[in-house]
């Protein structure tokens, strides 16, 4: 029988008492590689209580010591980089290169967390009134929690707990039940980095365990990444319980191609941006909008995507891996069929994809639709698979209007040789993250991940300065120390005038 994934409570890995288990499968073979428990109510409450108790000491730990934990942690993550990527590839199906990218982007956030002393600096103004000074401190909240998705089991947990803990909070991680082995290794290495016992806890499960975190009064803030319906649910329930919530949700990311762009650059970038990671990422380009004569490039784009094929994680020739589950594959295939039924032109059809040696894998080949319109479900819904919709408009303003009318606002990009066109696009587009001749504009950790509209519910975003603000409170002090209160004596060196 496959091994049971353990909980991490009070600084110890422990077996759950739960009898409810969820199988963890290899998406390329359907082999059950682990069993993940749905933590009991007592276990979840124990983790929260322990985190609350540890917070009282951790918040008093000097910020330089907290930074050193993050320095040691990033060194260990780099040392074990390929090992973590191998674990990740085995449970997600990602290619090895893609898995390494997942780990590395998380490491970059840990490096950012190591700069926490400067990030926590407050502000000071002397003499806001005569003899009165005002200054501010940045202080931690308490117990924070994170609920992370299957598609980035290294990067997204590392978006959350390192910065939250560096700010002086304690943290409870509830990773995806579909790939818990990678987060488990992250927790093991965090312990090795010298983090005090109980600063980080990890529980497993599904909706019931999430609800326990959302409802418990001692959880002060909660971070989430996942689908739109779940993101809305998390945000509503969390804020109803008076918690601070940041919920990152779905997307429908557009790439606008101007006729003056470099054709080959456009095609090369769109291939990776649309089907990389099997399209299972919220920053994937799922809609290419061709302006004017650029529409003549659509057949060449389709031909390039037709040459791409998925494969197992260690296949160096594979462009991407399988979808995470049979259910995910079934949903994507239904969306492809619906696109055909709605009248879209299927230029490349990956519905019957076969990978030699892996007959049971959740494979879907690259799929390209032409003549897509805004009333089609393949346009309105996030497919979350290796499917690219292409659309045609006459002008740049038409393209801007099309993108702005979409309810999502995670990321977008424009390919053009015109600085004027690029500036107009970046200025007028109602999307949080914009790429110019860059296909997937995910910012580095010293900025923040800034999705808009239905791609994000909350006020403060992940990593960067906004995350520090999310995981902290500002205390402002106004002080007066009248000189008349000075007591004269042999130890006083101030001479009053």
TrEMBL record:
Residues spanning the membrane: none
UniProt keyword annotation of NAD present: yes
Enzyme Commission number, as recorded: 1.2.1.27
UniProt lineage: Bacteria, Pseudomonadati, Pseudomonadota, Gammaproteobacteria, Alteromonadales
UniProt xrefs under Pfam families: Aldedh
Domain Aldehyde dehydrogenase: 13-477
Keyword tRNA-binding: no
BP-aspect Gene Ontology terms: L-valine catabolic process; thymine catabolic process
Listed name of the protein: methylmalonate-semialdehyde dehydrogenase (CoA acylating)
Keywords: NAD, Oxidoreductase
Cited PROSITE patterns: ALDEHYDE_DEHYDR_CYS
Gene3D superfamilies hit by this protein: Aldehyde Dehydrogenase, Chain A, domain 1, Aldehyde Dehydrogenase, Chain A, domain 2
Family per similarity comment: Belongs to the aldehyde dehydrogenase family.
GO MF assignments: methylmalonate-semialdehyde dehydrogenase (acylating, NAD) activity
């Amino acid at each position: 029988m496959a091994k049971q994934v353990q909980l991490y409570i009070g600084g110890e890995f422990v077996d759950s008492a739960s009898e409810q288990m969820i199988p963890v499968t290899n998406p390329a073979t359907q082999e059950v590689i682990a069993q993940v428990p749905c933590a009991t109510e007592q276990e979840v409450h124990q983790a929260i209580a322990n985190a609350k108790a540890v917070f009282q000491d951790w918040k008093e730990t000097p910020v330089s010591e907290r930074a050193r934990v993050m320095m040691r942690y990033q060194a260990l993550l780099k040392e074990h980089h390929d090992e973590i990527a191998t674990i990740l590839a085995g449970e997600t199906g990602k290619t090895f290169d893609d898995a390494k990218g997942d780990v590395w982007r998380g490491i970059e956030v840990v490096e950012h967390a190591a700069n926490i002393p400067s990030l926590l600096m407050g502000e000071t103004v002397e003499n806001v009134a005569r003899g009165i000074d005002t200054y501010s401190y940045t202080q931690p909240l308490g117990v924070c929690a994170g609920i992370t998705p299957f598609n980035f089991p290294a990067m997204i947990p590392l978006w959350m707990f390192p910065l939250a803990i560096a700010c002086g909070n304690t943290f409870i991680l509830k990773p995806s039940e579909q790939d818990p082995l990678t987060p488990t290794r992250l927790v093991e290495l965090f312990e090795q980095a010298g983090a005090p016992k109980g600063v980080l806890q990890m529980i497993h499960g599904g909706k019931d365990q999430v609800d326990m975190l959302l409802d418990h009064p001692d959880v002060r803030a909660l971070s989430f990444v996942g689908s739109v319906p779940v993101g809305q649910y998390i945000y509503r329930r969390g804020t109803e319980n008076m918690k601070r919530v940041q919920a990152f949700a779905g997307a429908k990311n557009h790439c606008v191609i101007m006729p003056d762009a470099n054709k080959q650059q456009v095609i090369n970038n769109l291939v990776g941006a649309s089907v990389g990671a099997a399209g299972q990422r919220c920053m994937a380009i799922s809609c290419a909008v061709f302006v004017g004569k650029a529409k003549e490039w659509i057949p060449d784009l389709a031909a390039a995507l037709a040459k791409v094929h998925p494969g197992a994680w260690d296949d160096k020739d594979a462009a991407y891996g399988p979808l995470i589950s049979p259910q995910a594959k079934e949903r994507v295939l239904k969306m492809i069929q619906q696109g055909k039924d709605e009248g879209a032109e299927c230029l490349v059809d990956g519905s019957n994809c076969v990978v030699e040696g892996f007959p049971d894998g959740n494979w879907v080949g690259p799929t390209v639709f032409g003549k897509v319109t805004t009333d089609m479900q393949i346009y309105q819904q996030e497919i979350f698979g290796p499917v690219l919709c292409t659309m045609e408009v006459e002008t740049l303003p038409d393209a801007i209007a099309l993108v702005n009318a979409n309810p999502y606002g995670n990321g977008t990009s424009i390919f053009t040789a015109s600085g004027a066109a690029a500036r107009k696009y970046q200025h007028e587009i109602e999307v949080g993250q914009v790429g110019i001749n860059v296909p997937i504009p995910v910012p580095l950790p010293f900025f923040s991940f800034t999705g808009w509209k239905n791609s994000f519910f909350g006020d403060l975003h992940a990593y960067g300065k906004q995350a520090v603000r999310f995981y902290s409170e500002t205390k402002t002090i106004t002080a007066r120390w009248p000189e008349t209160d000075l007591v004269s004596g042999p130890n006083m060196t101030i001479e009053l005038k």
